[in-house]
Amino acid sequence: MKNTIMILLWCVMCVAHLVVVSSLASPAEMADVRRDPVVVTVNEVLPTVVNITTRTRVEHRGIFYDWWSKNWAPFIEELPPQMSAGSGVIIDEDGYIVTNVHVIEGADEIWVKMMDDSQPMKAIPIAGSMVSDIAVLKIQAPDKNRKFKAAKLAADDDLLLGETVIALGNPFGLGGSVSRGILSAKSRRSPSEKVIQLEVPDWIQTDAAINPGNSGGPLVNLHGEVIGINVAVYKNGQGIGFAIPVKQVSDALSKLITPEILEDLWFGARFKNINGRVEVVEVKPKSPAAEAGLRKGDILLKINNKPISNSIKAVKELIAAGKERPAELLINRGSRQTILKVELVEKRKIFNAALIRQKLGIIVKPAETEGLIIENVDRNSPASEAGIQPGMLIQAIDRFKVDNVIDAAEILFYKEKGQGVELTILTQRRRGFLIETYTGKIEVKVR
Questions:
Q1: By CB atoms within 10 Å of each CB, which of 194, 206, 226, 292 scores lowest?
Q2: Is residue 341 one of the residues assigned to a domain?
Q3: Total structural domains in the chain?
Q4: 266 has which bridge partners?
């Protein structure tokens, strides 16, 4: 009897325990334990990550190939199969992508593939900076009105040493790749000699695995915000990966996404996302922005009565306003709001060959390869006094490479009378039956 009572008490306790457990957490709720912040973040951000593949035309040299190319020209444009180059992340609903320059360098065609799309879409390079290793692409979707899910950039320097971070990519077109780690260092210099050439003084370091195909993909925090762009892994050490910090990415975007670059419209100011606001970080003198009264430090609120949430949207709204028509900017300056009207101008109307002749006294035209050929030199001009002659090739102005008239004229536009400008000149001289090529620098005083 005593044993029977003990068995009954034990059964009652077991049932009570099961009732208590079931009352505390249902099976569905227990399953949610798996959906920790990492899983939630991955599900939110991974659809914004793309795979990037490239095609590059192969140049052939030789007598037989030259004969073949002349007689069978249509086949010269054939491209080899696509090669997976890396990853990228969509940062704007219109399909703008951020990736590394080294991912797309030398490509003749660029294709992107999203997580949920079976068919790749062509992308075009908008702009890129070798010194920052940041490039911007734009998806050429068949549906021109298509909107894409975009990732959000974190605030500058919003980094917590030791916080959980996630490296995302879409390598080799196989689908999403996820690795988890911590933020190991906020400012680290890679031992690679190549880094010395980059304008990235402080990379961020993580022990999250960054594979070659993840280059150009985002490094995100648990808020789903992009804190860096994956760029490299240190081969000689395990758990050492690097990413370009979001501050450097934001700086690069403010220089690469402008009305001047996107549509050849002269505005003359740059915006940047700072602490959740769109701030004016540069205003060039004598530009339409300066003439309208815009100042560095102004906070942009609206353009043509449309709220502005980020710098990319600001640039797109300016372009949408069009040329030769004022755009109305609502700004916050100090403690007061002000409305300014600015009119964008076609760059070619200001920055042209006539301006170059006015400043230096030379007539130029684009070369077949790179640079500007000097066709004529005015008498008693600054160029003639500096010894410049027709036939010379201008490769750079003040060490900035110039491949077209507009870029060259824009540099000279901001030069005051009597100010010096350095021209990198390539010239050829005949020595007997030999033609020798020389490169030198000549300083010219603008007029």
A1: 194
A2: yes
A3: 3
A4: 345
